[in-house]
């Protein structure tokens, strides 16, 4: 039921698709407005907010015709009412007195429905799904240029090693059979694990590319191989990894915790998130310009 980037968005039933287009059919987050060319970044919902205008999340469209604005607004209101009715029906079904908390993800229409629910049932608490929030924060961090670039280099490094069987065997010899984690999906959480596993093998990786086995190999003569070898010798590459790991380690911990435990006390999560914030502040210690990149 995520309004962000799921099935019904891809099915294009939303009338706003008449006025918007995707740049990349496989990525439903950046949406281009056909009237003014503005690209919004959080799926069709944010694009609709742009069309309707007057929202704090996004600048309104100046070139959008009045009829389109009204049509889109009506559709959004209808959908929101439907969502609210659905949640309301569920609460009535369970019994108003038995429901004390409703947890939803943080797509804007859920946020609004949650607020309406709290107004209607004052004893009810509505909260965002922490796992979803943390996921989004990490995805955003993954989009920062320095982080994105470091991950790309790391993926090239592991990809190169794992694509040459001989080189892979050489690596296993140097790492005593320890493997590097290869990102399975384009999710930041797995990229994080890749960086972590590369960092653990920093010394061994450097030793491989300084070894006679390497310099005598055919890979050392390939441009791609030389580039990969150079990467492992670059202090900036390792410094960036350390920096990313420091900033994200606590957040990833929280994500894992909320993703896998189902009996968590809310107060405990607040404490963990607070600790994470403290740890991040300590990690970036004094580098104000860097912390502002993140928050
Ligand atoms: Zn526009």
UniProtKB/TrEMBL annotation:
Write down the Pfam families for this protein, in alphabetical order: DUF659
The domain of life is Eukaryota
Residues covered by the DUF659 domain = 78-154
Q: Please identify the protein, giving its name as recorded.
A: DUF659 domain-containing protein
């Amino acid at each position: 039921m995520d309004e962000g980037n799921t099935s019904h968005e891809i099915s294009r039933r939303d009338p706003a698709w008449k006025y918007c287009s995707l740049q990349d059919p496989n990525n439903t987050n950046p949406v281009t407005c056909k009237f003014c060319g503005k690209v919004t970044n959080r799926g069709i919902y944010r694009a609709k907010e742009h069309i309707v205008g007057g929202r704090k999340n996004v600048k309104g469209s100046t070139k959008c015709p009045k009829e389109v604005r009204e049509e889109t607004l009506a559709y959004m209101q209808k959908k929101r009412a439907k969502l609210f009715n659905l949640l309301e029906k569920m609460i009535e079904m369970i019994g108003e007195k038995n429901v004390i908390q409703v947890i939803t993800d943080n797509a804007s229409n859920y946020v609004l429905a949650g607020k309406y629910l709290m107004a209607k049932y004052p004893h009810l608490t509505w909260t965002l799904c922490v796992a979803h929030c943390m996921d989004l924060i990490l995805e955003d961090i993954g989009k920062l240029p320095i982080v994105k670039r470091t991950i790309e280099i790391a993926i090239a490094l592991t990809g190169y090693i794992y694509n040459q069987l001989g080189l892979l065997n050489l690596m296993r010899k140097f790492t005593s059979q320890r493997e590097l984690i290869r990102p399975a999906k384009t999710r930041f959480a797995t990229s994080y694990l890749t960086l972590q596993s590369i960092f653990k093998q920093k010394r061994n990786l450097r030793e491989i590319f300084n070894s006679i086995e390497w310099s005598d190999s055919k890979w050392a003569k390939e441009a791609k191989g030389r580039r990969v070898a150079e990467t492992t010798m670059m202090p900036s590459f390792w410094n960036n990894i350390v920096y990313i790991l420091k900033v994200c380690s606590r957040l990833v911990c929280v994500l894992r915790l909320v993703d896998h435990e189902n009996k968590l006390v809310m107060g405990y999560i607040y404490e963990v998130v607070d600790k994470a914030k403290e740890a991040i502040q300590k990690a970036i210690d004094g580098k104000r310009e860097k912390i502002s990149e993140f928050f």
